[in-house]
Amino acid sequence: MKLHNLYTYAFLKAPTESLKLPVxxxxxxxxxxxxxxxxxxxPEVCLDTLQNDDERLIQSVVCHDRVICELFQQTTIxxxxxxxxxxxxxxxxxxxxxxxxxxxxxxxxxxxxxxxxLKCIPLKLEESVVSSExxxxxxxxxxxxxxxxxxxxxxxxxSEWQNLVNLINQSYPSTRIITAPGTESRIxxxxxxxxxxxxxxxxxxxxxxxxxxxxxxxxxxxxxxxT
Length: 227
Hints:
One of its GO terms (cellular component) is gas vesicle. The chain has 227 residues and is α+β, with helices and mostly antiparallel strands. It has two domains: 4-110; 113-226, Alpha-Beta Plaits. The chain contains six helices and nine strands. Strands 1, 2, 3, 4 and 5 form a five-stranded antiparallel beta sheet that branches. It has a four-stranded antiparallel beta sheet with strand order 7-8-6-9, covered by helices on one side. It is elongated and about 85 Å long.
């Protein structure tokens, strides 16, 4: 029986005898192997049909993430983006064969590691209360002082951000930084599972060094940003 429309969740190292395959969107998941690399696929998934149905599309995105998380809990995987699909098994096998070395090296790089999200939220300077009794020169002086304090605050905040990035790069060379000036910036770190406690301690240290930022460390997740 020929397999078509192979929705592909992840690549991983073969053999995979002990792997428990999760439940897919609608059909049982399969393993297709070429040499030392296997692909976790779900056959007969028509992406065009999903894209024309918003509710099914959302459910499929949630399913995609769930499957990858369940696989990640069992073994090292190279998670693929939502929407990765191959028309036939032959296409997938050809792809695995031609990219085998690259995928093998990437999977080895990700072994025993997970992705951690560090949210970096810039704090705002509290508005100074200008007395309603202030008049004329006093009022404008108070406003001027607040403006200057605000400028100093944001200058220091910018310096703290650069310092934070430098500190993180010193300890964790594998990072992905997504900046959003004025709002929440995100730093993704690739960290060995055994070093999670050290990472938590590092975040506390970074927080002390950057008091004008609120740092929030998330739970470990599959290495989406390091593929």
